[in-house]
Design goal:
This protein is mainly alpha-helical. It folds into two domains: about 1-185, Up-down Bundle (Growth Hormone, Chain: A), CATH 1.20.1250.20; about 265-355, no CATH class. The chain is about 80% helix and about 0% strand. Helix 6 (about 80-100) packs antiparallel against helix 8. The protein is globular, with a radius of gyration of 22 Å. The model has no long low-confidence stretch (mean pLDDT about 85). This is Facilitated trehalose transporter Tret1-like. It is a multi-pass membrane protein. It is found in: Membrane. Keywords: Membrane, Transmembrane, Transmembrane helix.
Amino acid sequence: MFANPGILRECCAAVIANMMSFALGLITVWVSACRHYFHSDNSPLGPVSTQYISWAGSIPFLSALLGLFVWGNLSERLGRKPTGFILGLPFTIMYILLCVSHNQTVVLVARFIGGFANVGCIMCVTLYVKEIASAEMRHKLANMFSMSFALGSVYIIAVSAFVSYDTLHWILLSINLLYLLLVCFIPESPVYHIKNNDFQKARKSLEWLRKTTDETVLNSEIKTLKKLFIIESSIKFLDIFRNKYYFKSMLIATFLQTCILNATAFSCIITFSSYIIQSLIVVRDVSMYNIAFTIFQLFGCLASFFVSNILGRRTFIVSTCITYAVFFFVIGLYSYIPIPYHDKVSLVLIYLFVF
């Protein structure tokens, strides 16, 4: 695959862009990774309450709501690449604050600032990667988002088990600074230039991405991208309710979002995994258990690429939701019925859940 230098460049650009999805994995699992710091005899933040931990875990999701009104419009006005650079700033500011202050209020403010970029990671990274990828690589590179998120989870859990609180945040700050540097070297999305009728710049982006100056190839690529991504007539909000196709699409998207991310409590379990594991097995140090938890998440991402292609997207989603329900039912049943080894079985089910 990498014998083609154009594909290698696409992959490099996608990897750099997905450093933000990696960062999303870091901020989501941060509370779980830092649990042993907060509950040690020398807690960097001093004594912390359960309520404080709850706010520390949930506040990035609250500030992410504000990002809904910003990142999409910003990527259309400024372009994908400038927006990608701006996207790295809230994370960078967050880690600077975490590096220089151990004040509990400052930590919450830092998490709020960092969370503002969460939605932008999902919206802008996936959009950029789809727009730069060639037809043969689009599906493969689009899968990189969930993989990068899982790698971020594994990374912060593993590193936090071996380094101090301050060292951890200097490392995370360095990763974000590296991203801000590398993103300067990737090209703008050719689709953004096509939308602005700047075909010369679109060709320049494609020349870099495909590593070719062949006009036939470039013109063919531009034609394909226009067909895939350019909508000639604008769609207004009220049009969603007037058009049966758009309305059905919205209902399906809302249903999937609610069932998979909200009803299954996936984000909550990821965010507070070490606390959940500790409550199940009643062990003070759960770092190794939590590393295993995130590794199962990573393996699940790898497996889903193959299984979803074999079963089809709809069958895969439905079967996954049914499996979630069974796991939660059994875990809930074990909480009320005294069954031997219920703690170990519940732990296995949590691992299978994240897988």
